[in-house]
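_Full entry_
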Amino acid sequence: MQAQCQCGQLTVRLPGPSPAIVACHCIDCQRRSGSPFGVAVYHPTENLQITGQSKQYVRETASGGEFRTDFCPQCGSTVLMSGDKNPGLTGIPVGAIADPDFPPPVRSVWEESMHEWVTIETALEHFDQGRPKT
């Protein structure tokens, strides 16, 4: 399975779907994705094969950690995400995979900033803010 930016310069080979598919409605994900929410699949970083150049934007999270977004310097597409809350895991936006048969989210987070007209019925877990660290 492969994810890529719009121009194809930055690609990520991943082992396939994972049980960690998350819809996030936080304001930062809304702005990052240009949509009412972002959806990402998370994999152990060592299982990903990344090809191409990326630039990184780092922001502070509500809990005081860092969240990193890697994007293509040519077309601007987000292709990778990682945060201090889950070290060793990297998120890949499901839209970058562009597979209509990709499984739906199993978790929906930051629903306190979710648009009224959005529903994520497939999610087994719903959180007003981020999922508590276990």
